[in-house]
Amino acid sequence: MGVFKALVLLQLVYLSTCMEQLDIIYEWNQLDFEFPSPETRQQAIDNGSFIPENNIPMGLEVFGDRLFITVPRWRNGVPASLTYVNLKDNSTKSPKLIPYPNWEAHNFVDGKPAIISPFRVRADRCGRLWVLDNGKIGSLETNVTKFTPSISIYDLKTDNLLRKYVFPEDQVKEESGFANIAVEDIDCDKTYAYAGDVGKAGIVVYSWEKNDSWRITHHFFNPDPLACDFSVKGYNFSWTDAIFGIGISAPNADNFSTIYFHPMASNNEFSVSTEYLRNKTVAEQNFDAFKVLGSRGPNAQSSASFVDPKTGVLFYSLVNLNAVACWRTTNKEYLMKNQGRIYMDDIKMIYPTDIKVDYDENLWVLSNRMPIWMYAKLDSNDTNFRVFSAPVLKAISHTACDVTPRSDILDKFVNKVKNVTKNISSKLNPSSSTIVAPSSLISLIVLTVLSLFV
Ligand SMILES: *[C@@H]1O[C@H](CO)[C@@H](O)[C@H](O)[C@H]1NC(C)=O
Ligand SMILES: *[C@@H]1O[C@H](CO)[C@@H](O)[C@H](O)[C@H]1NC(C)=O
Ligand SMILES: *[C@@H]1O[C@H](CO)[C@@H](O)[C@H](O)[C@H]1NC(C)=O
Ligand SMILES: *[C@@H]1O[C@H](CO)[C@@H](O)[C@H](O)[C@H]1NC(C)=O
Ligand SMILES: *[C@@H]1O[C@H](CO)[C@@H](O)[C@H](O)[C@H]1NC(C)=O
Ligand SMILES: *[C@@H]1O[C@H](CO)[C@@H](O)[C@H](O)[C@H]1NC(C)=O
Ligand SMILES: *[C@@H]1O[C@H](CO)[C@@H](O)[C@H](O)[C@H]1NC(C)=O
Ligand SMILES: *[C@@H]1O[C@H](CO)[C@@H](O)[C@H](O)[C@H]1NC(C)=O
Ligand SMILES: *[C@@H]1O[C@H](CO)[C@@H](O)[C@H](O)[C@H]1NC(C)=O
Ligand SMILES: *[C@@H]1O[C@H](CO)[C@@H](O)[C@H](O)[C@H]1NC(C)=O
After folding, report:
1. Fewer CB atoms inside 10 Å of the end CB: C or N, the chain?
2. pTM over 0.85
3. Measuring from atom 9 of ligand 8, which residue has the nearest CA?
4. Alpha carbon of residue 11 to chain centroid
5. Rounded CA gap, 337 and 4, in Å?
6. How far, in Å, are 85, 96, 168, 178, 215 from residue 134 at the CA level?
7. Number of neighbours of residue 331 by Cβ within 10 angstroms
8. Which of helix, strand or coil describes residue 186?
């Protein structure tokens, strides 16, 4: 009985120090758009250019007063694939999406809009929005139309298009799908963008200075055949997605950053210095510059990830667990026990799809129930899409990523448990000096605590 009480007590202590530390800022049952008038909205519904249930938010980014949201054209009836909402407007928790930079960029001209289908975007510290355009229309319809993927870069002060770079044909493969972009903006004139190809494992590196790109491949970008099975909210499916999460660190002493990456179909995390990505020859000559950090454990496939440059904390999603977790990149080891849990909820956090930290040190997360949307149908009477936020320091407090190292907290628990069990054992068996049972009990309890961190 004592053992069970101690276990329950410890779990309660753990849970109470691990409150869900993100607030819900926005939530939607279905997405709607800020049309020029109610009449044009109705026309768009009537002529099929707006089919509300076909719209799903995929990527988010925050810059100044704007929260950007991408809406990929996986199905027909997406009126605008890159949008924003005004963070200052607190009149509603379910704001209508405003097309970015304007409606014109999303109208079909000669069979395609200027912005076709971005999944994720990145606002750099130099005030530029990097829009990685997947280029595909109707991937989930019977008819897919493919255009060449590209990066469009907008000036966030004027919203003018600074540059559009269309990927060279030889860097785009038949199965290619560009879903994530990381931007290394140490120098605004010598900025590099890293675009992950989730369909055909690779990274296309773009140099702003050279206005040129090259494709890097490495076997660590590939999906792990043993980690392709997913189970989200009762929907079981198999995805062979390659490199997905790309988190980029603040510059190291050598002025290069570290990229932390993982394929979607994988439980492992990897890293590489950007030194090896900035030159294709150097990458090919240094295969061992790509490192395996370690495993998050079973069932721990992750989609998006992001490194907060200030705290050095890597935030990542856990899609099977309806959770967002973290790891301090200053940790020497990437172990299960030094992964922290930020938020976990079987209703609200179904499929965390994007994670960012803004320039005011706030963490942002978007969840969108994508597998249900893909394989069944979302209930339009239920809240399906949510935007969460909290200051980074609040989000990581009392987790393994906190400034107080987890091991200290653990040691405290272990000491306390030791004292309690010493007392229990001395009561059970006052004459016994050996405490074999209690020590195995301690390890059992410690294991239980550790298992909660996964
Ligand atoms: C549908 O209606 C909208 C709103 O009036 C208009 O912008 C769009 O061009 C129309 N699309 C088609 C295919 O007619
Ligand atoms: C909404 O925003 C206005 C203006 O920024 C502010 O005065 C008001 O307190 C805000 N209301 C809430 C509920 O946050
Ligand atoms: C498929 O897309 C192509 C190119 O847009 C178009 O010409 C063709 O009519 C479409 N087919 C169907 C069945 O919609
Ligand atoms: C960058 O390169 C692309 C294609 O190679 C070209 O179309 C574009 O004009 C170039 N932009 C600049 C600013 O040099
Ligand atoms: C889905 O997968 C989970 C976990 O792998 C398993 O427990 C469950 O039985 C599966 N459900 C179906 C319908 O196959
Ligand atoms: C890193 O960049 C800074 C600023 O440009 C420069 O002063 C410093 O020498 C660089 N360090 C190295 C190791 O190149
Ligand atoms: C890339 O690295 C190779 C080998 O070190 C070097 O010869 C080449 O000039 C570099 N290319 C660029 C564009 O810097
Ligand atoms: C949503 O709720 C309304 C009112 O309760 C109901 O009439 C409608 O059928 C519901 N729709 C769905 C998709 O469940
Ligand atoms: C456990 O007991 C030792 C002395 O037996 C004491 O120094 C220590 O502070 C106690 N730890 C806790 C967490 O109570
Ligand atoms: C151990 O037992 C003693 C006396 O039975 C009690 O004073 C002490 O508080 C107990 N320690 C712990 C950690 O429960």
Report:
1. N
2. no
3. 381
4. 28
5. 23
6. 22, 24, 14, 5, 16
7. 18
8. coil
**Does the C-beta of 419 come closer than 6 Å to ligand 9?**
yes
pLDDT value at 92 more than 90: yes
> Dmax over Cα atoms in the chain, in whole Å?
90
Pocket of ligand 5 (CB under 6 A): 231, 236
The number of beta carbons lying within 10 Å of the beta carbon of residue 240 is 17
Q: Give tens-digit pLDDT for 229-283.
A: 999 999 999 999 999 999 999 999 999 999 999 999 999 999 999 999 999 999 9
* DSSP 8-state code for residue 109: B
How far is the C-alpha of 59 from the C-alpha of 365, rounded, in Å? 9
Whether 233 lines ligand 9, by a CB cut-off of 6 Å, is no
Query: Alpha-carbon Rg of the chain, whole angstroms?
Result: 24
Residue 363 and residue 395 in contact, taking contact as beta carbons nearer than 8 Å: yes
What ligand is nearest to the CA atom of residue 251? 6
Taking alpha carbons only, the member of 177, 50, 175 closest to residue 119 is 177
Q: Rounded to an integer, what distance in angstroms lies between the CA atom of residue 46 and that of residue 26?
A: 28
Closest ligand 3 atom number to CA of residue 143: 1
Expressed in angstroms and rounded, the spacing between residue 94 Cα and the centre of ligand 1 is 25
What is the spatial distance between Cα 412 and Cα 264, in angstroms, rounded to a whole number? 36
Which tokens go with 222?
């590939």
Q: Is the pLDDT of residue 444 over 70?
A: no
Strands 66-70 and 323-328: unpaired
**Residue of the nearest CA to atom 8 in ligand 2?**
90
Structure token pair of residue 410? 């653990």
In the numeric block, the tokens 């049309």 are attached to 35
Mutate to test the pocket of ligand 5, among 229, 236, 319 (most ligand atoms within 8 A of CB): 236
| Closest-approaching ligand to the CA atom of 281 | 7
- Phi then psi for 101, rounded to 5 degrees? -75, -15
| Ligand 10: nearest atom to the Cα of 423 | 1
Task: DSSP for 342-388, please give it.
Answer: EEE-TTTTSSEEEEEE-TTSEEEEEE--HHHHHHS---TTS--EEEE
> What type of residue sits at position 171?
Q
Give CA–CA dist 166/322, Å, rounded.
35
Order the strands of the 339-344 sheet from edge to edge.
305-307, 313-318, 323-328, 339-344
Task: List the structure tokens of 26.
Answer: 């926005």
> Helix %, strand %, coil % for the chain, to 5?
25, 35, 45
Question: Where do the H-state alpha helices sit in 120-253?
Answer: none
Backbone angles phi and psi of 450, in degrees to 5: -60, -40
